[in-house]
Amino acid sequence: MAETRETAIPTQRREQSRRLAARAAEAVRAVDVDRLRELAPHLALAAVFLIGFSLDALLRYQRFGAPSWDLGIFTEEVKGYAHFGAPILSIKGPGFNALGDHWSPIVALLAPLWWLWPSSAMLLVVQAGLFAWSVGVVSDTAERLLGGRSKGLLIGVAYGLSWGLQRALDFEFHEIAFAVPLLAVIGRQLLLGRWDRAAWWAMPLVLVKEDLGLTVTAVGVVLMVMARRWAAGAVLVLFGFGCMALTMGALIPHFNPQHQYDYWSKLPDGGHPRLWHLLLAPFTRWTVWKTCGWLFGIVGFLALRSPLVLLALPTLAWRFGSANPMFWGTDWHYSATLMPILFLALVDVVARARRSRRPLLKGFAEGMVPASAAIAVACTVSLPVGLGGLADPGVWSGGPHAAALRAAVAAVPQGVRVESTTGPLSRLAARDDAYWLGGSKPVPPDYLVIDTAGWNGGPSDLPAYGAALHPGARYAVVFDRDQVSVLRRQ
């Protein structure tokens, strides 16, 4: 009998353990199902924006609507990583290493996708996915803090349609595509009081671009201001400053052909600015004031009441302090990283205003939730950029000129050295050793692809033009249609 009892006790304990494990598993499944139901509308919203962003980007790609050489540059960078080599940017010059231009090693994460889809279009879809991810993060965070699914979705729609993201879509892929969802997640963790998570999510920003080290520093300051987390905040401040100093002072010059950081020259006074000039000059520029109006106006200027707006200050400082007017305005992709900060700051202020004793502030803050979506829709309709541009029937078909460009690209063999104008450059960079027109001086290219549409006084004798670009080389026209020509070296 004693032996029977001794053997029965472990059996009972094992049975109890199995029951407890089963109950725990059921509880976890129940929590997962409930959380998935909560996330479903925000995932659906992110999926809608993914489709819209991808459609806009791919239509532009199909009609060769490249506004610059940047997509070709990033195509060469990803191709270099995918081939287990250095990220050489032939478009910028023979042997030019991407790490000597901007510090963006995070782009190497796209190498496995290149093995599956070796095309510039892949980069555009990835950027659309990263932006759409941030839409879901902002939308779900807004619901958590404000309560009510509709409020979260309205904020998500307003953010997804924000002009900063739309401008970035118009100017194709850039490394800041990785920073946008990272900043959305950082803002979410700060608003939910998950201080350690916010710190960990901030650290990868230093791999996106060298100036984002200052944004990491700003996250440390926000941790001190919002949570009195002095140790974690001090670590982030030192980490952000240290990484920025290391990349600008040592790493980028190491890979740069001239062993320097090229963008110091963008500062006033030729890279040696006087402090008073650096601080006061932005306030004298009307373009800067207009940009601030566009940035803070889309959230009713309420973001200025949130500590989260400190995260935007580093980006605004280098842009407005620069001597390059291109950084001051609302064009290009420079405002995309500010959008998640501003909209999550709006969420923060609306949540705080509910505890305010001032009914005017409380009413205005609550009204900005639907108003922000209305403002975003109005901007999308009135500005022919991003998703707003889809209303133009011309974007759905590139017409005969796009067909001529596709035929010209097909006329160039794979694996050759080719120089090209901006339009077809990214497609050629995906399969050839591609250079911007006139950029391969040491060794004349095998082919020239020239799109003269929009040129004022373009060359009438293309072979002579090719010979002038590369003295000693002779070229013959092998394709000519609708102002698009392909020249082959004889």
Brief write-up:
This protein is mainly alpha-helical and about 500 residues long. About 55% of the residues lie in helices and about 5% in strands.
Can you walk me through this structure?
This protein is mainly alpha-helical and 490 residues long. It folds into two domains: 40-393, no CATH class; 399-489. It is 57% helix and 5% strand. The protein contains 18 helices and five strands. It has helices at residues 2-62, 70-82, 111-116, 120-146, 149-160, 163-170, 179-191, 195-202, 212-227, 230-255, 275-280, 286-297, 313-321, 339-353, 359-382, 399-410, 425-429, 462-469; strands at 417-420, 433-436, 447-451, 475-481, 484-489. Strands 2-1-3-5-4 form a five-stranded mixed sheet, sandwiched between helices. Helix 17 links the parallel strand 1 and strand 2. Helix 1 packs across helix 4, helix 7 runs parallel beside helix 14 (339-353) and helix 14 packs antiparallel against helix 15. The N and C termini lie far apart (102 Å).
